[in-house]
C-alpha cells in the first residue's frame, strides 16, 4: 500500500530545515507520494539531477511546481533530487531533498505452515534486505557528499 509523506512533516517545505535528517529513517517505495506543503509564491519545487542538486542549479522557471500543495508520485526506483528555486533557498538555506526510492513493496508472504530450513546464505550472515541496501547506499552517499 502506498504511503504519503509530507516533506518536512509539520514544518513543510521551508528554509533552515534538515531534510537529510528528515528522510534518513524513512523508506520510500515506487507508488508512494511526496507532498511539498508551503505558501505559494514563497517557495517552489524543482525535480533535478544529482549535479544540479549538489550545485543548486535552478532549472528553467517553467519546470517549477508552484501550487504550495505539490504531490509527486514516486514512479520509478532510484535516487530522486528536489530543490527550491526561489532566491538562494537551496544554496544558502538547505532547502533541498534527496531520497532513494525502492521497488514497489510487495505484500508480506504468508507464514509457512511448517518450519523450513534456513536459506543457504543466511547461515553465513548474508542478507538481501532492502533496508541494508538502503543503509549502504546512504553511507556511500555520505562519503560522496564530504
UniProtKB/TrEMBL annotation:
PROSITE patterns: PHYTOCYANIN (PS51485). InterPro entries: Cupredoxin, Phytocyanin-like, Phytocyanin_dom. Residues 3-103 form the Phytocyanin domain. Gene3D superfamilies: Cupredoxins - blue copper proteins. It holds the Pfam family Cu_bind_like. PANTHER family: BLUE COPPER PROTEIN, PHYTOCYANIN DOMAIN-CONTAINING PROTEIN. This is Phytocyanin domain-containing protein.
Amino acid at each position: 500500500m502506498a504511503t504519503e509523506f509530507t516533506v518536512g512533516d509539520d514544518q513543510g517545505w521551508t528554509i533552515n530545515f534538515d531534510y537529510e535528517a528528515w528522510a534518513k529513517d524513512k523508506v520510500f517505495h515506487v507508488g508512494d507520494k511526496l507532498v511539498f506543503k508551503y505558501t505559494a509564491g514563497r517557495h517552489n519545487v524543482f525535480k533535478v539531477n544529482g549535479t544540479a542538486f549538489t550545485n543548486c542549479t535552478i532549472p528553467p522557471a517553467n519546470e517549477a511546481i508552484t501550487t504550495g500543495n505539490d504531490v509527486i508520485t514516486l514512479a520509478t526506483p532510484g535516487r530522486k533530487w528536489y530543490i527550491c528555486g526561489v532566491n538562494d533557498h537551496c544554496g544558502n538555506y538547505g532547502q533541498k531533498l534527496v531520497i532513494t526510492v525502492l521497488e514497489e513493496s510487495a505484500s508480506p508472504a504468508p507464514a509457512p505452515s511448517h518450519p523450513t530450513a534456513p536459506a543457504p546464505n543466511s547461515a553465513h550472515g548474508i542478507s538481501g534486505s532492502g533496508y541494508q541496501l538502503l543503509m549502504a547506499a546512504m553511507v556511500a552517499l555520505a562519503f560522496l557528499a564530504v
